[in-house]
Amino acid sequence: MTVPVADKQHDAVVVVHRLTDYHPDKVADAVAQQFALAGGLGAFVSRGDSVLIKPNFIVPRPRQFAAQTDPAVIVATAALLKDFGAKPFVADSPAWGSVAACAKALELDEPLRRLGVPVRPLDRPRRRRIDGTLISISRVAMDADKIINLPKFKSHQQLGASFAIKNMFGCVCGKRKAFWHWARGHSFDAFCTMLIEIYKVVAPVYSIIDGVVAMQGQGPISGNARPLGFLIGGADPVACEIVCCDLIGLAPDQLPILRTARHSGFGCSDIGRIEIRGDDYADSRCVDFQFAEQTPLNFPFSHVCRSVLKQFAFRAKCLLSKRSV
Asked: Mean pLDDT across the stretch 41-68?
């Protein structure tokens, strides 16, 4: 589906909104304006569509830690889709814990229940050939009519920063993500090519990056919250990431995923060909954003094994806890 741009000089549209807090009314208005300024929600979603809302659920921590997409952004997106006549559901495959535990930590259960929006795990793996390799992608994601990508604006201790593209790695089921860090982590190009190809396969129609409060320092889990004050959205994830870099004074080529995208011709990598709609941020760049101390991209195989065992132990503990109630 083609989204209109303002003129022939621009290859992509990115919508930027200033948002200083997560007041529900402000967030709802900003999310609605994201789509309105990009051509209208109907340019991306049809009435009756099953729409996967894919947040960044990574570890069961409350909103103040800025480890996960803020619940206000998730609820606002779900409500907008429901009002439009679509059938949204929220789903992910967290690195730690379960989808239910991550949603509970964000206190999402009740507001989503009131909306009639279910929370589901991205499970039921389906093997797809991606970049010459069979990778298990969640059937839940593949079977959705449309996907709205809701990543968190974060520093990242292996990739420099994480904005739009890597969030869709969550469509790889369970601990298979740790395996692919081991199997593809021998080079940034190999790993980032895989991330980009996964993004193409699941093909979100729109991304809204939650940068109202970002994570800086040792992200994507152990950093600290940093008020940034923006929602950044668009249909082109590379263009969105270029604008995110510009917001924090980061050269795009410092991010392996954007280097790989540019070399492969994926997305719009030239900020001069991106039309910014919404709010100007020229006087609001964050010049002292703290990046993570970088660690190796590839996980040792022993790390993969320990990670799988820890996840099994966590699930067993949750199951026992439920039975004792």
From this structure: 98
- What is the C-alpha to C-alpha distance for residues 37 and 109, in angstroms, rounded to an integer? 30
Instruction: Count each helix (H run) and each strand (E run) in the chain, helices first.
Output: 10, 12
Architecture of domain 12-324: 3-Layer(aba) Sandwich (3.40)
Give whole-number Cα distances, 107 to 58, 75, 157, 236, in Å: 15, 11, 27, 30
Strand partners, 18: 230
Q: 186 pLDDT exceeds 70?
A: yes
pLDDT digits 0-9 by tens, 292-310:
999 998 755 455 445 545 5
Run of H or E residues at 247: helix 237-247
Residue 172 confidence (pLDDT): 93
What DSSP string describes 166-193?
Answer: GGGGGGB-TTHHHHHHHHHTT-HHHHHH
Q: What is the pTM of this model?
A: 0.90
In this prediction, residues 79-103 reach a mean pLDDT of: 96
Q: Which residue has the tokens 């993004």?
A: 199
Residue 163: which of 39, 266, 273, 252 has the closest Cα? 252
CA-wise closest residue to 107 among 77, 71, 73: 71
Token code pair at residue 294 = 């970088």
**Tokens in use for 82?**
């429901």
pLDDT at 6: 44
Every domain of the chain and the residues it spans: 12-324
Can you point out the beta strands (E) in 22-177? 50-55, 87-92, 119-121, 125-130, 133-138, 146-150, 152-156, 160-162
